Task: structure prediction
Amino acid sequence: MVKVSEFPDDERQAYLDRDMPSFDETPFVKGKPLSERRVALISTAGLHRRGDRLFTEESGDYRIIPGDIDEADLVMSHVSTNFDRIGFMQDVNVAMPFDRLRELVDEGFVGSMADYHFSFMGATPPEKMAPSVRDLVDILRKDEVDTVMLCPV
Result:
């Protein structure tokens, strides 16, 4: 992954000058213990099953990834030229930590793993993702997911 400090001066400054959201308040709601939660993974690595539609620049939609997917059937079509795929190619868990989540479930630290997980294409404006996220919430509810682990890449 390229560091911002390695960007050309004008491109680096453009990134640093972006308006970033501010979070003046963080609501706190005490949830049930992790040992009772059902967890889904959501990545921004542009992951999908082999044969699914490729992600395109600023795709706002997501791809569904079954929890029991064979890692050999998981591919990445993230379109950024600055995106380093080497870590993912060596270990899928860098972008979508299926094995780590399974271990936490097996240890009893986490209650259960969702049947389905999801991937978006990172570097997409949030307003392009909003309609898909609303749809995704319904899918998560049907799977009785009460916790998501965001895996930003």
In short: The beta strands are 38-43, 47-49, 62-66, 74-76, 112-113, 116-120, 147-151. The two ends are 9 Å apart (CA to CA). Helices lie at 9-16, 86-90, 98-106, 126-142.
